[in-house]
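INTERNAL AUDIT FORM
Audit reference: QA-55
Scope: verify that the stored structure record matches its stored sequence.
Auditor: D.O.
Record contents follow.
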Amino acid sequence: LHTAYRRQRQMCIRDSYLNTKFMKTMTLLLGLALSLSCFSQNQQGYQNPVIPGFYPDPSVCSVGDDYYLVASSFQYFPGVPLFHSKDLIHWEQVGNCLTRPSQVSLQGASIWGGIYAPTIRYNDGTYYMITTNVTDKGNFIVHTTDLYGEWSEPVSVKQGGIDPSLYFEGGKCYLVSNPDNCIQLCEINPMTGEQLTESKRIWNGTGGRYPEAPHIYKKDNWYYLLIAEGGTEYGHKVTIARSRHIDGPYESNPANPILTHINMNAQGNPIQGVGHAEFVQASDGSWWVLCLAFRPQTGYHHLLGRETFLAPMRWDKNAWPVVNGDGTIALQMDVPTLPQQPFAKKSPRTDFKGEKLGPEWVHIRNNHPENYTLVSGKLRLKAAPVSLNDDKASPTFVGRRQQHTDFTATTSMQLQKASPADEAGLTVYMCESSHYDLYVKQLADGKQAVVLRYRLGELTHTQKEVIVPQGKIQLRVKGNNEFYSFEYATDGKNFRKLDKMNTRYVSTETAGGFTGIILGLYAVATSDSSKAHADFEYFEYE
């Protein structure tokens, strides 16, 4: 009996231990599940840039849980690309603000001209976009109540300078810009552009050259004035001042600059030229900063233009804002984020079967619509006697931004009804004086050739020329850190390499300007009487 009792007692102790262990295990698993659930609502990390490629000078506004962003477009039409996001990380281009020649004249605009930094704001059911056309009418405003529709005709603004921004408060609208190399403020009517008060100088910055990109925010009864200094290059930086009154006097932050890569802590960072920033408060109360920067490829040369980057920001009550802890940003940002909501992944191939091109496709200056048609699932470009070297007019050209250092772009095309020397093809285009062209040319004997040519400043040279059969030709360019490699095929699959060209010769540091590489499709005729056109079946970018 004693032995039986002892065995029964041991079994009860064992069962109690197992039950306790089971409950602890279940508690641990439940805690893990809850932590994973919380993690999914507070995800960690993202990759910079959040909008890769030539999309500089970002400005953003929030409307509920939606965020809308605009960027500079310079000599390209349509102007001012418009993006939408639900999490500040994933962005989708939904349109352009300037889609009609009556809104923007780009005749004669170069890579130094055209549309400079825009600002987007939302107030009382209406969206406003203010920007500068340095080639034409200066500062102007357009507005809309439907972001996915058309924007209004522009109204001009008297106060000069560049990088204009709007601030709404108490039924009033204030404008800040930088005439005479200082930040000036006035009150305006945003619907008419009428200036209602005299312009007043409110801050000169901290002493850096080119004080620009002003934005005003109000927090804790302080007016904060955010600007950029140092020029949009390696010396770029973001500084801030504040005042109890919108028209000043403004007190500079003792810890300026609040965002820059000119210091020792970022001298080896693969991101450079950080500046021109915009604050935004997310729907959960967190603060973020979007800014421009560029990624050098080979040496100190960059080709993708100035891109849009994102960083978190701490902004305690009555305190100065602190960007990402130490005022720098990284390619891999291991920080808590909003619940991430990526958009559906787009196909790398544009097959031209729609009724119109997507909003990412642009022309050099104001285009001639009659030279572009979508017919039978192809993009038809009518050849015009305006070459890619022209610095005033608009060639028959349509392209999209190069957004990655490593990429492959392919098209299939056929040149038809061409006269000798008419051409059409694929170009790696920085500007009219810097581009690599891979194209099909009509020869005098009825044959055709695939040609690789470059224009680099004052130098124009045909690198390779190969006779090919009449009919469809596939053209391809592959990019990496140091080279563009050019290939062609006549059967759609067996590509033959022509040659490779150095990336740095078409970089911003070599070519100049404020833009980045555009991968374009084009067609050029030798005369107005030419009936030449080129049919492009697809454009694939991976």
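Auditor finding: record pair retrieved intact. The first strand starts at residue 44 and ends at 47.
Action required: none
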